[in-house]
Design a protein that fits this description.
The strands form 6 sheets. Strands 1-2-3-4-5-7-8-9 form an 8-stranded antiparallel beta barrel. Strands 10-13 form a two-stranded antiparallel sheet. The chain has 30 helices and 19 strands. The longest helix has 28 residues. It starts with a helix and ends with a strand. By secondary structure, it is of the alpha+beta class. The protein has a domain of 337 residues: Beta Barrel (Catalase HpII,  Chain A, domain 1). It is elongated, with a radius of gyration of 32 Å. Helix content is 38%, strand content 11%. It comes from Streptomyces poonensis. GO terms for molecular function: heme binding; metal ion binding; oxidoreductase activity, acting on single donors with incorporation of molecular oxygen, incorporation of two atoms of oxygen; peroxidase activity. It holds the Pfam family An_peroxidase.
């Protein structure tokens, strides 16, 4: 195998100068092929078919490929050995992407899958002309686009004589037309008498590049006169042959000679037999049988479901050349599109033309009038266009990609249960890319990361924390309650978990500035002059790149993993014994583990607010299970569990979208925008006209759209995580009340509600009293000078940490740009002075004391310092990331788009989500709280309080 790489390097030339540049070109061409499928579907009035070779007159599963006993020694490689025989699948087809009558002028094709073993197969694809009409992939796709969906001579002529020259030039278009005319002018009477040539070259072990062909075996009867009146005569003719005898082809190879006469990169040049003789190496036999029997028809249907790709082979037989390299991405995309595992959302021409102009107008307008000061419906349109701009420039793919492509096994079929169930680890949400967004995949980026080790401790993060973050006086967010703080932590635990090294294995050290308080890094440990805590586990990059890539321990999807866990073992452990569908509860509470922390999907940073949320949604899961059992008695416990998980996860997503977010971003424009995300726009003709003109896909809620990743594999991002650092929401102390008479039970500090103590406290207080106590208390405002003191010194995993310092250090070391660069990367105007950042003189003075310039300001500090829009609980800069990622989490997830339907959720389950909300969840499990919830809002707004009257009885206060 030593020569394989040499052959590859000596014969292949990458478009754009590098494998990665070429890969990006091929990804765009793959999307073009999906568009061709859509156009062909419209022309053929049927379902999605292959972009090319849509109609297959013949498909058989029982073929055999046998190599000749006298196979030349030079051609013995891998599975190609003398006398070796393998089962094969064969598909014979017409080349058009539209299923048309067999008598139409067309090329014919053959696809063969040779099954060597369970782990090895080889796909051979060939067409009935010695050369391709296209030199490379660009020409191939340009021709396919020009002719896609063209039914009738006028449309075909327009495609070939107008569209094609515009795409490739007059001379190239003329050559391609002549090539195709020569290939299709001949009338084909039988698929058994055609010769099929490979499109381009491939390696053949140490023999180097070859092309192959399949020609009729000696003794094959000639083709009869075709029956032009029968649209399926090729099938009937082949069936008649197979009814009486085998049909066989001879597999031959032509060996590479030189780049002039046998080029690898130019697929339009014929390898002539006089230069590269066709050497017979094997015989492909389709055994005699009844092609129209029920068994044979079933086999043909299975063949139609297969996805052939020349890259389904081994590296010894790796395809070569530009056209072949493009086929890997194009065939995978086209196949996934056809089989309903990958989707394409076409943007209307009016949107492509008008949206950029409208976006530029709003960008100009926003210099003087920010979007949030516009009338609500104009603000909505402004946000829609802003989101389009952010999608275009602020989705960055960090996952490593294969470039150049390598040979691969035929992908395993999608496990049938996972078509209607969420997997435990988030895999198979995107059925065409099973690992996308699953546990263990990388965090993406919205902004290019900045790696500056020289600035990791500049300015000292302890100084930043003490002078700018530390809570001096509790600053409440009076429009919210503490349930809103518990909720966002409950959500973040579903989305994000960076793996850390074990304490002591690999640590970050932050020097303490002079005059700092004594610091202990471990309980009972010595006083030290540094803060030390476990470092995140970075992913090593090829070539020794900076440590800026990190994996997520949980899935990136909105799948309720904080409740259910991220692996099957955890999920099954949390369920009722003996395979029950419900989650285990003890007297309505989560069962406690040996450490006092309860058993649930995610238990880090555990406190009483998290316990309340986990308990509430564990009970909700069980309520859904009971309802499903009652409504569908035949449904098994396994299906009930997975359906209930779908329902609860979707309900959580809906609550966050339609209730928590409008509570913390309390404006009419945001309410409209978020309802638009889930339910579509208001029934207002002017709003709908604007969306129709500029973003037609916003005319429905995401549950009624197709999954759309906007050209970048789905993941959560490091920048998104930086935006969601909302620890100031947590108070340092809490008053606990009973809800009947408003009697105060006790006052406790946050650390008294943390860790194992949380479960003791919530069981003593009761869920209803806990929810009431948090419902009437305000969280902290997300601003400077309001970071909880309780989080400045607490124990986690055997370490004592200051979480405010950890937050600053993590953000810097993960390469999130500093605040001003962060703004600029999101299309916002840079600030040039500290006075622009904060309206408060004392804060400005401290900023100047800590930072040498505004360019140094930490992202978290800048986001806290900003004066947010009226009604906003966090900054407008942070909101830019939210605009992009909040909708992305919905639109990328098939269980919240194309599979958000009664067939998957059940009618009861879908109705449960549509009718449900945070209020209904609370009242289902604590109905006694009905009189206390806000009348005109959701449960994240302040609740009505019950105060003790002078006579000792209850007294409600609004």
């Amino acid at each position: 195998m030593a020569d394989t790489g040499r052959h590859q390097q000596s014969h292949e030339r990458y478009e754009g100068g590098s494998p990665e540049a070429e890969r990006l070109v091929f990804e765009r061409l793959a999307r073009d092929m999906m568009r061709i499928q859509l156009r062909n579907r419209r022309a053929g009035n049927g379902g999605l078919a292959r972009a090319l070779h849509a109609k297959a007159p013949v498909g058989v599963e029982n073929a055999r490929l046998r190599f000749h006993d006298d196979l030349p020694a030079a051609l013995r490689a891998g599975f190609a050995q003398p006398g070796a025989e393998y089962p094969a699948v064969v598909r014979l087809s017409n080349a058009s992407g539209v299923r048309q009558r067999d008598g139409a002028p067309d090329l014919r094709g053959i696809a063969v899958r040779v099954r060597v073993s369970q782990n090895e197969s080889h796909d051979l694809l060939a067409s009935s002309h010695p050369v391709s009409h296209a030199r490379d992939a660009r020409e191939f796709v340009a021709f396919a686009k020009a002719t896609a969906g063209a039914r009738g001579p006028l449309r075909k002529a327009f495609g070939l004589f107008v569209k094609l020259p515009l795409a490739v030039g007059l001379g190239t278009a003329k050559r391609m037309r002549e090539n195709v005319t020569a290939a299709t002018r001949r009338v084909v009477g039988s698929l058994a008498t055609e010769t099929y040539w490979s499109r381009g070259a491939l390696l053949w072990g140490d023999a180097g590049p070859v092309r192959y062909l399949l020609r009729p075996a000696p003794g094959t009867p000639p083709a009869p006169v075709p029956d032009r009146g029968d649209p399926d005569f090729l099938h009937r003719e082949f069936a008649q042959r197979l009814a009486g005898a085998d049909v066989a082809f001879e597999l031959c190879v032509q060996r590479y000679v030189d780049e002039l006469r046998t080029p690898v990169e130019d697929a339009s040049v014929e390898w002539r037999d006089a230069v590269a003789p066709a050497l017979p190496v094997a015989r492909l036999t389709l055994p005699a049988h009844d092609l129209d029997s029920a068994e044979a028809r079933a086999a043909a249907r299975r063949v139609e479901e297969l996805s052939f790709n020349p890259w389904y082979t081994t590296e010894e037989f790796r395809p070569l050349g530009n056209l072949n390299r493009a086929r890997q991405a194009a065939y995978r995309a086209g196949s996934a599109h056809r089989l309903g595992t990958r989707f394409l959302t076409e943007e209307p021409l009016r949107n492509r033309l008008l949206a950029p102009a409208a976006g530029a107008v709003f960008a100009w307008l926003n210099r003087w009038v920010p979007w949030h000061r516009l009338p609500p419906r104009l603000s909505l349109l402004n946000l829609v266009l802003l989101r389009k701009a952010l999608r275009r420039r602020n989705l960055i793919d960090v996952e490593p990609h294969e470039a150049p492509p390598t040979a691969q096994r035929v992908p395993e079929p999608v496990p049938e249960p996972l078509r209607t169930e969420r997997s435990y680890d988030g895999s198979y949400n995107d059925l065409s890319e099973p690992r996308m967004g699953s546990a263990g995949t990388l965090f993406g980026r919205n902004l290019r990361p900045v790696y500056r080790p020289d600035l990791f401790d500049v300015p000292n993060p302890v100084t930043v924390s003490r002078r700018l973050l530390r809570r001096e006086t509790f600053l409440p967010a009076t429009s919210l309650n503490v349930l809103a703080a518990a909720w966002i932590q409950f959500q973040v635990h579903d989305w994000v978990d960076h793996p850390r090294h074990k304490p002591g294995d690999r640590s970050v050290e932050v020097p303490l500035p002079p005059g700092s308080d004594p610091w202990h890094n471990t309980p009972g440990g010595p006083v030290e002059n540094v803060m030390r805590f476990a470092e995140n586990e970075a992913v090593e990059q090829p070539g020794g790149g900076p440590p800026l890539l990190f994996r997520n321990k949980v899935s990136h999807w909105w799948d309720g993993s904080e409740v259910y866990g991220t692996d099957e073992a955890t999920a099954r452990f949390l369920r009722e014994p003996d395979g029950g569908a419900g989650l285990r509860l003890e007297d309505g509470h989560l069962p406690s583990g040996p450490s006092g922390i309860p058993h649930t999907g995610f238990t880090d940073s555990w406190w009483m607010g998290l316990s309340a949320m986990h308990t509430l949604f564990a009970r909700e899961h069980n309520a859904v299970c009971e309802a499903l059992r009652a409504e569908y008695p035949a449904m098994g416990e396994e299906r009930i569990f997975h359906t209930a998980r779908l329902v609860v996860s979707a309900l959580i997503a809906k609550i966050h979208t339609l209730e928590w977010t409008p509570a913390i971003l309390s404006t009419e424009a945001i309410r409209l925008a978020l309802r638009n995300n889930w339910q579509g726009p208001p029934r207002n003709w002017l709003t709908q006209l604007g969306l129709w003109l500029f973003d037609a896909h916003a005319l429905t809620g995401f549950p009624r759209t197709l999954p759309n990743h906007h050209g970048v594999p789905y993941s959560l991002t490091e920048d998104y995580i930086a935006v969601y650092r909302m620890h100031p929401l947590l108070p340092d102390d809490f008053e606990l009340f009973e809800h009947h008479f408003g009697q105060r039970l006790e006052t406790v500090g946050f650390l008294d509600l943390q860790g194992a103590q949380a479960e003791t406290q919530i069981r003593k207080t009761g869920l209803a009293n806990t929810l009431y106590s948090f419902g009437i208390a305000h969280p902290g405002a997300i601003t400077l000078h309001n970071y909880p003191r309780s989080l400045e010194y607490f124990e986690r995993d055997g370490e004592i940490i200051d979480l405010s310092v950890v937050d600053l250090v993590r953000t810097r070391r993960r390469g999130v740009p500093r605040y001003d660069d962060f703004r600029a990367g999101l299309g916002l105007r840079r600030i040039t002075s500290f006075e622009e950042l904060s309206p408060y003189p004392e804060t400005v003075a401290r900023l100047k004391e800590v930072y040498r310039s505004v360019d140094e300001v930490d992202t978290m500090v800048g986001l806290y310092a900003e004066n947010p829009p009226t009604g906003f609980g966090f900054s407008d800069t942070a909101f830019r990331v939210f605009i992009l990622m909040a909708s992305r989490r919905l639109q990328s997830d098939r269980f919240l788009t194309v599979d958000y339907r009664p067939e998957v959720y059940t009618p009861l389950g879908l109705d449960w989500v549509e009718r449900g909300g945070i209020n209904s969840v609370i009242l289902r499990h604590c109905p006694e709280l009905a009189a206390l919830l806000p009348r005109n809002g959701n449960a994240f707004a302040p609740w009505r309080t019950v105060r003790q009257a002078s006579d000792g009885g209850p007294h409600e206060q609004g």
